[in-house]
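User: Sequence recovery, please. Input:
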């Protein structure tokens, strides 16, 4: 097991920022870590990386317990914090050399720095001071410092915040590439990112774990007895006619003669019959799959 989190609890004063959270990740697994603002994501990541301590519970990396003082276990972890702390006066290469020195990379330093500059797309920027870089390039420097010592576990707190669409794709591809051999836990508020990068999804809410599953399972498990259909008629229809179909819970108008129908069973054939009875042709009758946004809202609202 690469990363094992067992019954983690953390209080800030009276507030439980984390309440008995447990999950495990294997090597080669990329997990998206989701939760509303203030759910406890950064707190968990800070504990995993040894920046702060938990009030109860344990974190182990490759079988070794992480503590605030245990430097060897912390060497197995790469961390990109949410507010990527960098030294603006240092040049990119100088900063990465400094980080390589902190990890005592010795003779490997030069080649690792060069490799990281290339892998994180900093080749055109590495001669600049960090303070002169755009936000996206600062994120890349943060990723380069997180990867430089070749950690087994990578903890990325909102790694793609502030990136333009091109940079987003590049950094996502880098995370996918890195995740083939390492364990990656990354937090994000972007649901498409979860779809693009990982199969495993971990969601916390108010400090408690509310989901730990694959994206596919979550989409099926959560509210599996709710069906959604998009219906568009060619003429005016009274919404009450749709509401009277057995099993229909809600009819939301979303455009001219267009409705979002939520029901406990698949009511598409009833809607079709209604169109025939009322002699109003159907232009659209489409079953709608749940999105990760729906699942997220249901689990955290
Ligand atoms: N040092 C601290 N002292 C007191 N409360 C804190 C401290 N750090 C975090 N908190 C509180 O703990 C809760 C969890 O915060 P945390 O930063 O872990 O959430 P998050 O899920 O990362 O949120 P976001 O998505 O907004 O970054 C919040 O209510 C926050 O205000």
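Assistant: Recovered sequence (301 residues):
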């Amino acid at each position: 097991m690469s990363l094992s989190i067992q019954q983690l609890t953390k209080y800030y004063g009276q507030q439980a920022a984390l309440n008995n959270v447990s999950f495990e990740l294997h090597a080669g697994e990329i997990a998206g870590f989701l939760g509303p603002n203030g759910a406890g994501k950064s707190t968990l990541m800070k504990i995993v990386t040894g920046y702060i301590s938990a009030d109860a519970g344990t974190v182990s990396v490759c079988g070794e317990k992480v503590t605030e003082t245990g430097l060897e276990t912390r060497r197995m972890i790469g961390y990109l914090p949410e507010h990527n702390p960098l030294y603006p006066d240092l040049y990119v290469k100088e900063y990465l050399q400094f980080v390589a020195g902190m990890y005592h990379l010795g003779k490997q330093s030069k080649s690792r720095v060069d490799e990281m500059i290339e892998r994180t797309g900093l080749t055109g920027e590495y001669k600049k001071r960090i303070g002169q870089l755009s936000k996206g390039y600062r994120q890349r420097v943060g990723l380069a410092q997180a990867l430089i010592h070749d950690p087994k576990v990578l903890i990325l707190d909102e790694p793609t915040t502030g990136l333009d669409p091109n940079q987003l794709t590049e950094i996502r591809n880098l995370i996918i590439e890195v995740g083939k051999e390492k364990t990656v836990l990354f937090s994000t508020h972007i649901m498409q990112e979860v779809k693009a990068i990982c199969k495993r999804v971990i969601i916390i809410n108010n400090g408690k774990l509310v989901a730990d599953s694959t994206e596919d399972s979550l989409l099926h498990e959560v509210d599996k007895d709710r069906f959604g259909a998009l219906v568009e008629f060619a003429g005016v229809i009274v919404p009450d006619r749709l509401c009277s179909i057995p099993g229909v819970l809600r009819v939301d108008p979303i455009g001219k003669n267009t409705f979002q129908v939520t029901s406990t069973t698949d009511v598409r054939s009833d809607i079709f019959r209604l169109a025939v009875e009322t002699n109003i042709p159907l232009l659209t009758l489409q079953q709608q799959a749940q999105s990760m946004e729906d699942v997220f809202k249901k689990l955290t609202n």
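Residues 12, 17, 35, 37-43, 82 surround adenosine-5'-triphosphate (CB under 6 Å).
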